[in-house]
Write a structure and sequence with these properties.
The complex is a heterodimer of chains A (317) and B (339). Chain A starts with 14 loop residues before the first helix and ends in a 7-residue tail after the last helix. By secondary structure, chain A is mostly helical. Chain A contains 13 helices and no strands. Chain A has a domain at 101-310: Orthogonal Bundle (MetI-like fold), CATH 1.10.3720. By secondary structure, chain B is an alpha/beta fold. Chain B folds into 2 domains: 2-237, 3-Layer(aba) Sandwich (Rossmann fold); 263-339, no CATH class. Chain B is built from 12 helices and 14 strands. Chain B has helices at residues 24-27, 68-75, 98-107, 125-136, 142-155, 172-184, 202-219, 230-236, 254-259, 264-271, 311-315, 332-335; strands at residues 7-19, 28-31, 34-37, 41-53, 57-61, 83-88, 91-92, 108-111, 190-194, 222-226, 239-244, 247-253, 321-322, 328-329. Chain B has an 8-stranded mixed β-sheet with strand order 8-9-10-5-11-12-14-13, with helices on both faces. A 4-stranded antiparallel β-sheet of chain B has the order 4-1-6-7, covered by helices on one side. A two-stranded antiparallel sheet of chain B has the order 2-3. In chain B, strand 9 (190-194), helix 7 and strand 10 (222-226) form a beta-alpha-beta unit. In chain B, helix 4 (125-136) crosses helix 5 (142-155) and helix 6 (172-184) packs parallel to helix 7 (202-219). The longest helix of chain B is centred in the middle third of the chain and has 18 residues, at 202-219. Chain B is globular. The chains are: A mainly alpha (317), B alpha/beta (339). At the A-B interface, helix 9 of A face helix 3, strand 8, helix 4, helix 6 and helix 7 of B.
């Protein structure tokens, strides 16, 4: 291992070649669950992004909705109609279109909220870990306090107060932004703690000393040298956090504090169908519920797989 | 002292201690019904003074935990001294801000012990070498930077076409060459090497050592070389500083130290080198262990294990004194001609 043997290093591997030879790609090729999860996730993402092109109806357009079409069961049932493959909800909206749009809303909130969490968490975690001392204690105590409030509790209070103060009208316009902000701000300590822990391990390594000896500034060392080396844990928690954010959003919507009925997410769809479930209209709740569960399951499976692959104790590289 | 005139780096009366008693809550203790605050320190360096001459390779030797690496890291500004001064070409540098320190960063560089940790795993060799050059020479054109990188890579025997590779694709020896290239990239005149070869295979050690000597000749470098390998010292060093428990025992030209060690600790250390000779002097066996650096012994730190120790050694801390043959030694016994 220590010998000075020089393998043929003449040709430069491209980024793609390097990726194809990586441990990450090899274990992905070997893991059926990961492949399946990834395919399902990509399908979700593609369908959600192209919802406005492929959906047969526009659920946001009131002129396309006919109340007379309400509560039509899925097309495979006796009373079903072919133009509504998954049936309609209580307002007569096509379930398939509404679910496609709802998945888009859910994914959007999940991704944006996690992006916000990651931004806050990375900056705070890096600062705390690298600077250490009082700054570290202060930031981590704030994180502890933040963690002692559950996300849902904070979200419910903030959203309810917002609704009460500024009225439901304004809230409905800003619902998506508010959800992103609330879920994003409530969960940053998860990131901050994980990143701080790996920064503490990284900053003891000699390449950080070498950078300091070069006279590089703190920000350059933190973001150019240490941050890239903490990417593995960031990637792992990101997948899990997206799943969590989608669930949080669905729970809030279910409680009536999330997306308004006119722009339903998966959570508000489930909630709106809940009243009809005992009158036989099960599909309004169950179908979006299954869609949500599969989405979250797939994200969690991907996260699990990634944690196994990137676990530095199992594999170092 | 006349030798101060051509000294490059001057360390004077350096102290460094590390707190081991944790934060305020851990320090509070109940003792006899009273709440007291107790602080404990590891005394890593205790009054070390030495100057590194221009163009020399000053080796610092000593056993594990004697403060060699702490000296190196304090000189480089990675640690701030508790007391004492460090000056570079007569200018004090230990109290400078990061910004004021920048011009010295170009002049002073460091090579680290572990070649597996001293290169950023997420950067290609090219990026690793390019960043310091560009940082310290913002006006340099891209082509000049490329030429400079190629030049340093060639000078350490690394093929410039390997630049796009990541550090984990190289062996330990190659990585250490790249670390040396990184240090040389900013054209330093002084290099601190903290056990640069102790993590390497024996067959590679000589190569890296020769590389460092070549670089010294070509670039007129000055080294502060931290090591615990006495064979390396004999091969590499112009002068040797022997440390024991955070203090300097003896500072002498290499040949003199090996042929005529004066300090009792140095004598014991030299006698411990395995040799293929029959007529070697008897192996001096020291009794006891190195005392803990938390509670330093009074007087000479070596008195507990020294066969020549007397009452004065137990009371008074010896200072480094210059002998007739150019050796500097901190020992009451040598001063009094007892040893």
């Amino acid at each position: 291992m220590m010998s000075e043997s020089t393998p043929n290093m003449q040709q430069h591997p491209t980024a793609l070649q390097r990726f194809k030879e990586s441990h990450f790609w090899h274990s992905f090729k070997a893991d059926r669950v990961a492949q399946l999860s990834f395919i399902i996730f990509v399908t979700y993402a593609v369908l959600a992004m192209s919802a406005s092109f492929i959906a047969p109806f526009d659920p946001y357009d009131a002129s396309q909705i006919d109340i007379m079409n309400s509560e039509i069961p899925p097309s495979w049932q006796d009373e079903g109609e072919a133009s509504f493959p998954l049936g309609t909800d209580a307002q007569g909206r096509d379930m398939l279109s509404t679910i496609l749009y709802g998945t888009r809303v859910s994914l959007m909130i999940g991704l944006c909220a996690v992006a916000l969490q990651a931004l806050l968490g990375i900056v705070i975690g890096l600062t705390a870990g690298y600077l250490g001392g009082r700054v570290d204690s202060f930031l981590m105590r704030i994180a502890d306090i933040q963690l002692s409030f559950s996300t849902l509790m904070v979200a419910i209070i903030v959203l309810a107060v917002f609704q009460a103060t500024f009225g439901t009208e304004l809230y409905q316009q800003l619902a998506m932004l508010m959800l992103i902000l609330v879920i994003g701000i409530a969960e940053w300590p998860q990131y901050a703690r994980t990143i701080r822990a790996s920064v503490l391990a990284e900053k003891k390594k000699e390449y950080v000393d070498a950078a300091r000896v070069m006279g590089f500034g703190r920000l350059r060392i933190m973001f150019r040298h240490i941050l890239p080396n903490t990417l593995s844990p960031i990637l792992v928690i990101s997948t899990v956090q997206i799943a969590n954010a989608i669930i949080s959003e669905a729970s809030l919507s279910f409680l009536g504090l999330g997306m308004p009925v006119s722009q339903p997410s998966l959570g508000s769809l489930i909630s709106s169908g809940f009243e009809y479930i005992f009158s036989g209209a099960w599909w309004i709740t169950v179908i979006p519920g299954v869609v949500l569960v599969v989405l979250v399951l797939v994200m969690n499976l991907l996260g699990d797989w990634m944690r196994d692959v990137l676990n530095p104790k199992l594999y170092k590289g | 002292m006349a030798e101060q005139n051509n000294s490059l780096v001057q360390i004077s009366d350096l102290y460094k201690r590390f707190s081991i008693s944790g934060d305020l809550l851990d320090q509070l203790q109940f003792k006899g019904g009273k709440l007291t605050r107790r602080k404990e320190y590891v005394h890593a360096i205790n009054g070390v003074s030495l100057s590194v001459m221009k163009g020399e390779a000053l080796c610092v030797v000593g056993e594990s935990g004697c403060g060699k690496s702490t000296v190196a890291r304090t000189v480089m500004g990675l640690l701030t001294p508790t007391a004492g001064q460090i000056s570079y070409r007569g200018e004090r540098i230990d109290n400078l801000s990061d910004k004021q320190m920048l011009p010295y960063r170009k002049k002073m560089q460091m090579i680290f012990q572990n070649p597996y940790a001293s290169l950023n795993p997420r950067m290609t060799i090219m990026e690793t070498l390019k960043e310091p050059i560009r940082f310290h020479n913002p006006s340099m054109a891209a082509s000049e930077i490329r030429d400079k990188i190629a030049e340093v890579m060639l000078s350490v025997g690394v093929d410039p076409s390997w630049g796009e590779r990541y550090s984990h694709e190289f062996s330990g020896g190659q990585r250490q060459r790249i670390s040396i290239a990184r240090a040389l990239a900013v054209d330093p005149e002084f290099i601190v090497a903290d056990e640069p070869i102790s993590a390497l295979d024996v067959s590679i050690q000589a190569q890296v050592l020769n590389l460092m000597m070549e670089a010294q000749e070509q670039r007129n470098l000055t080294y502060l070389f931290i090591t615990h390998d006495l064979a390396v010292v004999e091969h590499f060093g112009t002068r040797v500083a022997v440390m024991y428990l955070g203090t300097l025992c003896e500072l002498a030209p290499t040949k003199q130290l090996f042929s005529n060690p004066r300090h009792p600790y140095t004598q014991a250390l030299m006698s411990a080198i395995p040799r293929l000779e029959d007529n070697r002097p008897d192996y001096i066996k020291l009794s006891g262990e190195v005392p803990t650096p938390v509670n330093l012994p009074t007087g000479c730190v070596f008195h507990g294990r020294c066969p020549h120790a007397n009452e004065r050694c137990r009371q008074e801390i010896p200072t480094l004194t210059l002998l007739d043959d150019g050796t500097q030694v901190a020992c009451h016994g040598v001063e009094e001609n007892r040893v």
